[in-house]
Structure formats: C-alpha cells, structure tokens
Amino acid sequence: MRASKLFLCLSIASFFLILSCQNSSNNTNWLTGKVDSAAIRKKIEKIRKEINADKKAKEIEQVMIKKVFEGFNGSVLIAQKDVVVFEDSYGYANFEDTIKNTPDSKFQQGKIGLDNTVKDYYPNFPYDGVTIRSLLCHRSGLPFYQYTFDKFVRQNDKYPSNQDIMAWFASASPTPPMFNLPDHFFSYNNTNYAILAAIISAAWHEGFICDNLKE
Question: How far apart are CA 136 and CA 183, in angstroms?
Fold first, then answer.
C-alpha cells in the first residue's frame, strides 16, 4: 500500500513540475523566479470540476467509514489526472504507543515492492512468479486454502494462522495445482490476503517495518 501511495505522491509532484514548465509564460515571473500559485490553483480547480472530485471524495469517505468499522487501519490516497481526490489516515501506526497514522506515516520504506514475489520472503513457496501486485489484484491463480483447512478447523476448532498456511504451501505433497498462471485471470481468493499478511509479518521480523515505525 505504501508503495502505491509513494507512486501517487510522486505522480502529483511530477504534475506540478510539468505544469509549471509548460505554462511558464503565464505562471512564472522570470524577474523574480516565483511561480504564480494562484494560476496553478485555478488549473487544479478546473480539473477537479472536470473529474467531479468533490462528489467522488464524499463517496469514498462513506466507503472508508464502513471499512474503518470493519477494522481498516492505514492511510489512503486516491488521485485522478494527477490531482488528489481523497486523502485521509485511520487508526494507529503504532498501537503500543498510540501513535496515530498520518499521511506521512512510514511503514516499510519501499521494502515491499509491488513486483516482488512471494519467494522473495518465503523461498520455499512452491509457485513461481506470484507477485505482491498479483495478490492485491486477485490475479495470483493460487488454490483456495480454505478447502484444505476446512477439516482441520472442524477437528481442532481452531483457524490456521497465516504462518500455518505458508508452512502448508511449502510442505504439501503433492503441491496443490494452481487454477491458472499468475496475472492471467481475476478470481477473488482469500489465500491472497493470508499470504499478504504473512509477507508483512516476515518483513516486520526482518526489521524492514519495525525500524521505520520507531522514526
């Protein structure tokens, strides 16, 4: 999530730079080198009206209220045409010290990249080419772990942890077949969420996240 947010922030920064360069004759006083911020604000407001940003922001806010009630914790930034439509933070970056999330909260400083694979964090994971991006987009093609652990839950009255699921993937024999190769089809699958949570845990224990929460 943080990687996506960083990308969007960089896109916004690029928008201001390009806008300033392309409209230098109108927006810049070459004697002082100052940018006409009023002209830039006017252009941004024009784009906001074109994309109906205010209406979208209200709709997104309603969705986030529901998500927070369901337990969402983190920061959200949504942009269109390089203009921020919605940005807010929820919950805590550090629960122990009750440090609230802000748009500047640091979590893992890009150590979890969208194009990293599960094997980067779990070398014994039996499938190649499954990236963070494919997990987030439900295009991993992985089997449903629920079917395998259904009997386990009934017998033990206990749900498997994310680490239990990763251990099962690494040791299952024969290896459960994939539904399809990664990034070929969309199919909602809770296995993706379990693996994403396990990757966050692995990154935490490697110090990728924990060190930055202390900053």
Answer: 11
Mean pLDDT over residues 90-98, rounded? 77
Radius of gyration in angstroms for the set of CA atoms belonging to the chain, rounded to a whole number: 22
Residue with tokens 């920061």: 75
- Max intra-chain CA distance, the chain: 79
Q: What residue has token string 């209406």?
A: 55
Question: Residue 194 class from Cβ within 10 Å (0-12 exposed, 13-18 middle, 19+ buried)?
Answer: buried
CB count, 10 Å around CB of 93? 20
Which DSSP string do the residues of 50-72 spell out, in sequence order? HTTHHHHHHHHHHHHHHHHHTT-
Query: DSSP H helical segments within 157-208, as ranges?
Result: 162-171, 190-205
Spatial distance between the Cα atoms of 112 and 131, rounded to a whole number of angstroms? 10
Look at residues 45, 51, 52, 40 and name the one whose alpha carbon lies nearest to residue 81: 51
What digits encode the pLDDT tens for the residues 122-137?
Answer: 999 999 999 999 999 9
> So where are the chain's domains?
2-100, 118-213
Residue with tokens 């990757």: 199
Output the pLDDT for position 33.
Answer: 44
Token output for 12: 């916004």
Mean pLDDT of 193-202: 88
Q: Distance between CA 135 and CA 116 in Å, rounded?
A: 11
As beta bridge partners, residue 83 has 80
